[in-house]
Amino acid sequence: xxxxxxxxxxxxxxxxxxxxxxxxxxxxxxxxxxxxxxxxxxxxxxxxxxxxxxxxxxxxxxxxxxxxxxxxxxxxxxxxxxxxxxxxxxxxxxxxxxxxxxxxxxxxxxxxxxx
Length: 115
What we know:
Blueprint: H1 3-38, H2 41-46, H3 48-57, H4 62-94
Helix pairs in contact: 1-4
């Protein structure tokens, strides 16, 4: 498997991840905006205690947050590398034998021979 296959595969996987992340953020933002448009001041004030409790509920210690963040980043990069490796192998399989030249190509005309 050539380096070019891995390079192309990593670019493709990064683009797919970016599109999925952007789509998820857009859907989440749209849902929040729709809820905000529907919420009135009277509803918010009447249910203020539950909104405040929901905000205060999600507190985690700094150490637990740091460990969770590291584990998530390792998992994301692991999945990214595994997908890129798989796609690279698939590209190598598809393009096998598509060129008769060695990876370096033919020698330039001013060089007699590489050997």
